Amino acid sequence: MSRKKRIETLLKGLFEGIYEKEEALRLSLLTAIAGESVFLLGPPGVAKSLIARRLKYAFKDGKSFEYLMNKFSTPDEIFGPVSIKKLKDEDKFERLTDKYMPGATIVFLDEIWKAGPSIQNALLTIINEKIYRNGEQEIKVEIKGIIAASNELPPENEGLEALWDRFLIRNIIGEIQQSGNFVNLLTRTQDVYEDRIEQELKISNQELYEWEQQIDKVSLPPEVINTIQLVKHQLDSHDNESSQPFRIYDRRWKKIAHLIRTSAFLNDRKEADLMDCFLMVHMLWSQPNHIEKVQEIVAETIRKHGYNVALNLSGLRKEVQAIEQEVFAETKIPHQTTVEELYAVERQYYEVLSLESYLDGKYIKRSDLDKLQIEEQQTIGVYDEQFKLTYKVKAQRSKIPHHIEITHNAQTLPFKLRTHKTEKQDIIYKKPHPLLRKYWNEQYENLQNYIQTQLQKIDSDQPQAVAHLENNLFVEASLAKIVLSNLNDAINTLNELQLRLEKIKHYYEREFQE
User: What does pTM read for this prediction?
Assistant: First the structure.
């Protein structure tokens, strides 16, 4: 059984009898395997403690420790009582930890923010270093995951910021919403706390140790690194403008990268992908009103930039534009000339000079002039200053530019139309030097080879990549359409640039043939 199939089967077993808490369980298992901790925000009675109890069944010989914090909680209740024998016989202060938090596999701490300073300090060391200082000795704890919960966020200005920052994944958990699941909850009689996970699915300490070494070898490809960088840039910009900053510092970014690697590893991949990046949404908010903004930033970054940045399409576009501008600059020389053109009045009339000496009016319609031909008379109208029709006359075009011939009183007379001089830019085409054409051909070949290589790479990798996008164990399948949208945009851009290059070469090769 593959690792991914095993984790998928394990998750299905953990989900059994728990309704609409799948996301919280997935994220809890992911963080436990990654050696991190998760915080669940939600009211009492929504299965937060059940998630922790179920999670311990994912591990061989798993033991859980649960505690509901209050302001009177003491270290003895969390870390174990002081050994009277050690204190009496050896004058040593040591706790009996086996049945308490240091001896557990999965820990659930409810109402975490009510913990006193002495408990908080010990928790920081356990969460961050997996070490508990028991008297004079440091104990390496075997805790896989710590799940903390509360119906509120940590109060401000009470020194809880460091503890809050240690919870890498943050998830809001609520009551059942779907009526069918609510009915199942009411009618189900099986014991939800019973361990039904098959032994071969459970994860051993040795496996976790080996996995830890392999997770560190999972690579972060350019599209993932660039996505993380762009998301960070967006959040930094938001922090500079907002009264509610995100405040994401280096240690959390390091842990985010590790969790992304863990997701890729458990999905049987040797490198992370853009789907894994959606997990950042659960690791970047510190206020519930941040969540929508984080979702928007992560989704839009992947949609607009994902593969585009990895392929450096912006740089490629600039290179294609540069060669296009150089080709045109060397072969198209602008030339300014002064030309005489007809002067249109009200856009649809032309003035016939000296016509008022013969007729009551001096304008003809532009459309009438357009239909006139040389040596073939047609009837046109003559209009006065108010552009009212005054006469109908026979006229024809003259062989002299900007002139017409009008027949009046049995005489055919030439008349000039009013003109004005305008500046016109013509293009003089210049044949490029052979050395220039050789240089352009080299640039063309280099760019085309790069584009073709990227298209072939996408084509060869895409079937495998697309196949697993919707099957990520920890990310909603619906988000795959965002990744696919970006991938298709990247392919279309490469094809467009390829066609643009071909047109450039066709221009300087064919237009200036010997």
Answer: 0.74
